[in-house]
Amino acid sequence: MPIISDTFSPSLPFKSAHFNTVYRPLFMKDTIKYHRKRITTWDADFIDLDFSLVESKTLVLLIHGLEGSSQSNYMITTSNHLNNIGFDIVCMNLRGCSGEDNLLLETYHSGKTDDVEFVIKHLNSNYNYENIIIIGFSLGGNLTLKFLGEYNNIPSEVKGGIAVSVPVDLTSSQAELNKLKNKIYLNEFLRTMKLKLLQKAEKFPDFQLDKELLFKASKFRHLEKQYTVPVFGFKSSEDYWKKASAKPFIPEIKVPTLLINALDDSFLSKECYPIKEAKNMKNFYLSTPNYGGHVGFISSFSNTENKWLEQRISKFIHETLGIKS
Questions:
Q1: For labeling, which of 55, 199, 210, 273 is most exposed (least CB within 10 Å)?
Q2: How many CA atoms lie within 13 A of 202 on its CB side?
């Protein structure tokens, strides 16, 4: 029964889920120096990988969330922490998220795990690591969980996974995001996604984009109808949500995997807390602290104290996966 009773007790303002959610991206200014390597994909596109190496036998692959990148604060703080305790890291920038538009019309979506499989195979074939661990945040966490449950030919070097703030049930979580409490977040996601779609329409004249409808779009499904559904071959938004959700794949996960979803995460519906799966599985661990917001988990205004998430991640790697630096 791997349900973990984690206690996260932030100071008063950070007990607010919204305050905790926005504080990290707006006010935390951590830095890191990556070494970038561009790899060519099987479909003549590219994926940018950002490395930070400390000569370890263990490599941790980090995958960011919707419209994020290797420069997202949670990616930087996790990378720095893992480097400091002796692990190599590589951040996977999803297609179109590395600061340069990718070559194809297709970019990424919540369930596009073929890119994750490709990167894992590339890392395993071109580097000599004894252990590989996958850590995903939000959308990247959905990719992590779905990949670990979906593929049967995962290399033995992949020892486990960690997923943070994950909408594992897209049908209910998108409905949650449409609520008034999340309007600011949704509008920001839509703003950057609309700009990218306009850029794609300029590069690919045959891409039938209704710009008037695009400007009016106020929900994810409005963009999905014009882009995700037709470009990736889904029947509808509902079909996409069902097929891309990680939750149905969780029971198939074979390696130790931790999901950390705060109970106050305003992005998540009750269906995004897979308690039944955690109770019935040996390898799937669920942590549901009362506070944390969405990829927040900030304790106070002091940067030296804001390591709860990073320490929770390293604790799972050390104690459950049994991997030392």
A1: 55
A2: 7
